[in-house]
Structure formats: C-alpha cells, structure tokens
Amino acid sequence: MPFSCPRIGGNLPQVVLRQRRCVESTTNHVARFISSFSQSHDPLFYSPKNRSHVLKIASPSNFSTSPSHPLMEDPERLSLASLGDEAGRENYSRELDVAVRAVQIACWICQKVQDTLVFKTNDNNSSGSNDKRVYSKDDNSPVTIADWSVQATISWLLSESFGISNVSIVAEEDVHTLSKADGAGLLKAVVETVNEALSEAPRFGLMCPRENLGPKEVLEAIGRCNSAGRLNRKFWALDPVDGTLGFVRGDQYAVALSLIEDGKVILGVLGCPNYPMKKEWLSYHHRYHRIITKLTPPASESWDRGCILYAREGSGEAWMQPLLHKNKRLEWPNAAVPVRVSSIDDPALATFCEPVEKANSSHSFTAGLAHCVGLRKQPLRVYSMVKYAAIARGDAEIFMKFARAGYKEKIWDHAAGVVIVQEAGGVVTDARGRPLDFSKGIYLEGLDRGIIACSGAKLHERIIKAVDASWNSSCL
Q1: Among 140, 179, 192, 309, which residue is least crowded by beta carbons within 10 Å?
Q2: Catalytic one among 97, 144, 147, 395?
Q3: Does residue 150 contact residue 193 with C-beta atoms inside 8 Å?
Q4: Strand (E) positions, 149-283?
Q5: What is the rounded CA–CA span in Å between residue 28 and residue 37?
Q6: Does residue 153 carry a catalytic annotation?
Q7: DSSP-derived pairing of the beta strands 352-354 and 318-322
Q8: Rounded distance between C-alpha atoms, residue 134 and residue 384, angstroms
Q9: What is the model's pTM?
Q10: Which of these is catalytic: 144, 153, 193, 244?
Q11: Is 244 a catalytic residue?
C-alpha cells in the first residue's frame, strides 16, 4: 500500500554531506546579503558594528504610514535575500521579499482555520451541530474560508506593496459563492479572518491597513485576482490553498505564489504548513504534531512545524525557512537554510511521488512506469504541491503525474514548485522532455501527456524513455 507523506521519514534515503553543504552555503548566503547591499546603501548602516540591525525587521513603530511605502521606511534595505548575480537585469529582490512574507501570513491563516476545522468539526458532529465549514464550488471541488481569506489577504498585500495598477493576479477562487444572497454569514467569517490576519502583518514585516477592511474591500481584493481573459505579460499566479481536500482532512496542503513574466516563472514561494522543517519529524504523523502542540507547545528549535520554500529563476539556489511561531517576529536571513535535490540516481533507491486523487492522475500508469524503470519503493501519495517541496528538499527523487483525458493542468498548480525544484538542481518537463509553457493563459496548454519532475537528469531520462515505450498501450 502507498504510504502517507508524514510516515516516510525512516524510509527515505539520506543525502551524504548535505548538512555540511547547508552550513557552508548558509554562511555564503548571509555574506552575500550583507556585501551586496553595503555597496549600494549607507555604509554606516551596514558596517559590522551595526550588522545585527540589518538582520532584524523594523519594529511596527518604525513602519511608514504612507500608502506608497507599505513595507518599511526603506523597503530595499531589508530585502529578504540577494540570490545570485543579477548583472544587466532586474533582480526582483523586493518582489521576493514581499512574496515570502505574504505567504508566511497566508500559512498563519491556514493553520488557524485548519485547527478549527479539524478539532471543532469533530466536536460539532458529536453534539449534532450542522455548522457548515466546507463548501462546494460549481465543479464540486471543496473550498473553505481559508481559500478566500488567503486570496483576499495576499491580493491586498501585493496591491498595497506595489500599487494596484502595477499588480496583476490570477488565482483559483472567485467571489461567486460569497456574493450569493445566502452567503452573508460566510462572507462575514471571511472578512473577520482577513482582518485578523492583516492585523498580524507588522509581525511579518508588512504594513497593516489603518482600519479594518469591510465586505466590499474584501470582495474587491478577491475579485482583482482575475482568472479569465487575456493575461498581462507580467502577473502573479496564486493558489491560496492547493490541495483543499488534504486541508479539510487535516493532511498536507500548500500555499503557492509565483511571479510570471513573458511566460517564464521568475520566482516561486511555496508554503507547506504541515511539512516539518526537520526530516526526522517526517516519521511522525501530523495529527500527532497537533496533539502535542495543544498539550505542551514545543520550542521552535525542536519543533518547526511547517516550512516555506522559495527560489528565484537563474539564481541556482533554493531556500527554506520555518513558519513563524506565535508572538515571534520574522527575522531574516538568520532562519534560512539552503535546500538541494537528492544525489540518488539509482532507481532502486529512489522514492517517487504522485497525487492522491485518482480522478486527475492515473495510478495504474505510473505503477507500470515505476516497474519498467526499476523503482522498488512504494509511491509517496501526497496532496498538493508538497510533492515539489519533497523533491527540492531531497526527501524524494521523482514526481510523476499523468492526467486522464480531458483534465487540464492550471498554471498556479505548478509554477511555484517548478522554479523551486529547478533552482534546487532538479529537472521539470512534460513527458516529451519539453519545458512547461506558462505563456498560454491559465492552463498549461500544449502539455505532452504528463509532468515529470526529477532530482537529476539521469533519472529523468530513464522515465522519459519508459513513457515513450509504454504510452501506446495506456488508456490515457
């Protein structure tokens, strides 16, 4: 039987010398962060004497109240990272900065809503309550308060950070259900969740609104994420809760945000609230995490429930940081560690991921491919883009998805994960070995048969050959 993601800790191959590489690379990361900014900013501010100030987010009292400066008095000074050399082109450091902070807040929303969903729904069911917490969209897929709340929050933060006229967003959700006559209670809950989240923004180094948003402002924020019509040449792609079915079941899910320009994914941020920072915790079920948290909240040093991965195209680097714990302030770049794909290229030792749902992926075809290639381990079936995180971190080596006829992949379900895996050293293509095309609208048009992500070229090549040899006999 396939095993769930949190149970695989003891079965995954170890990556030799990875810890040493992480320590060395983290040191270089911090050094580049300091040196790159010291050349273009006040040298007194960035002197070794004041180094500690560079690595701390400004206090809320120092935040600008000007709408044109939604982050801090000098947003460029406290950029999240300086990834790679950006000679001759825009480096998108501020976009990455805001995106990671916004996804941190989004994960805070999701954890809060999921805990309420999992624990209180059980209590309500036992008492006979009919309190509805999960809703169905027109295509019968599930949606929750977290989906709309995250979309509204990130939309507002991006618009305030860069100006509404400068921000174009495509995203999963719309305002149809919230705008119905019988949706007043649901809309009220979303508005309350959004305002609670935005009130926490200063903890994450972002500005909060001067006053609470009303229903109109929240609906406008959600509605600005237009998924219809012609896309701008530069836009953000957002999946507020990728893997909603996993989310409502208390399982794995992700918040995915990416920036796409001229069909190329420029940066990606992937929040995985139930995926632990430390590999050792993978052997413990996430429900055990929640129980222990309620009984004796652990120290962040030993716990680190959830993580955020991010990367910028062309940097050759991918990074991971823990989710922010209660009453903590986001500091940077202290908490960041580099991630790298696994070095394993022997199929017999490799772990492969695939979607949980049979409706949009053929398990039988991937099982046949696994046998042909020589994969011996049971598949890791995981909800959401957490599969991309597993590849990028070296917890697994292969992700395969072959959708059934008629299913069309959406760009927000892959963009963030693709750039993170690629910058971590992996390979992501369609089943013919071609790069995924994000230039044709909200769907991955022209996708050849399926998607294959691997930790290295050798495994990738073997799977491509196996697909070619097996495809004509498949029923896809």
Answers
A1: 140
A2: 147
A3: no
A4: 169-171, 234-242, 254-261, 264-272
A5: 14
A6: no
A7: unpaired
A8: 18
A9: 0.77
A10: 244
A11: yes
